[in-house]
Amino acid sequence: LTITAGADVAEEIHVPDDFDLNAIYVDMLGDALAGFAESPARAAIPLADGVAALDMAAGALESSRSKKAVRLVGACR
Q1: What is the pTM of this model?
Q2: Which of 25, 42, 63, 74 counts the most CB atoms within 10 A of its CB?
Q3: How far apart are CA 11 and CA 17, in angstroms?
Q4: Are 37 and 30 in contact (CB under 8 A)?
Q5: SS3 string of 6-55?
């Protein structure tokens, strides 16, 4: 993962070769299912935060495809 600020690389993160990305999804799914089992049901994050995360992911994909910076517009905290 490379994070840039303009043309300068701000941060690079390297994961180990044996890193299991699926473990993250399994943990997240387990947490979500546990929340649904509670009474009343509990969301891990507010819906608006989930939508914002999807917008950021879509922006990252578009930036990768176009090789250009993508400006995200929306509510920021």
Answers
A1: 0.48
A2: 63
A3: 19
A4: no
A5: CCEEEEECCCCCCCCHHHHHHHHHHHHHHHHHCCCCCCCCCHHHHHHHHH
